[in-house]
Amino acid sequence: MSTISESEGEEYGEWPLKRLMSEVVGSGPKSAEDMTAAQATEAFERILGGAPEDTTLGAFWLANRWKKNVPEELGAFLDVMDRESVVRAAPDCDPVDCGANYDGKGRSALLGVAAGVVAASAGTPVVVHSGDRVPSGNGVAYKHVLDELGVETDLDPEASARMTDDVGFGFYYQPSFNPGVHALLERRNEMGVRTFVNTVETLANPADADVHLGSFYHLAFAKKIVETVRESEEATVSRVLMFQGMEGYDDVRPGSTTVAEWNEGDDLADFTVETAEYGMDVENEDLQVEDVAADSAAITEAVLAGERDDAFADAVALNAALRLYAAEDVADLEEGLEVARDAIETGAAAETLADLQAFPA
Description:
This protein is of the alpha/beta class and 361 residues long. The chain contains 16 helices and seven strands.
């Protein structure tokens, strides 16, 4: 990817990445300082504008990984991405935004398509978004399972919005709705590790939804996401539901799992879910597959057709219940589970999947 010299990028301000490295973030994990919102804003404007040389950009990304970005910085990055890159197309309905980690999964079935379609068939619109083999995991994401199901994924944002309204389930493709971040793909691939871009791209919210659903390994990350939304001047999300997910994705982890819940104006709350109490009495190994994309698509079709009553079916039902609860369309997970199972048993979920597969681009 060709770049311009940062010395030629004076229109951005006084903080080229090399200066930020030497004076703020680059002195090491223990002594580095956090950037101000203004400094973080200028830094990401330069990055999206292609100003930094590859070596400088890589060093900056790595220094921020060591230092660990704070919500003020992440909120500024999010705002720059929103202004400079994201192309939103809001459907008429108000969906739940599922922004799973774009670098995907590599071992376990991806159940978010099945869970989202079940929720949609029960009256809760769901939007998912992803890229195509995003670093550093370069794993299977929403796009790949949908491709295996024969669903059109190379959509412009307006078509994604129509899909959401027509079907109840919509897919937004990163190269179309977030082209500035997509243009960084090659340079991110060269890094070999995750960067702050992996965090902020999940919050792109291309459908302008009020509710964000995501996942975390540790509760501290959920707190950071909520604080990032609070720090952002552009974010429109007023409710966040996150849980411990398998491989960092938005498929709930079996066993004792923490769920974090936030509504605008309130503090972050958390509670523990024992998945066995909701019918998901399985181990992580029970949800592993050989070919994540193809097997996840086959599992989706079979579960929604009512042809499976195994660990995968139980996991899909609970994940659908979490999406229904995120939208506040059910009072609790017990009601959500009942609604989800009814949608599968009545054939409503299978009909919604057929509508999704038939959607014209």
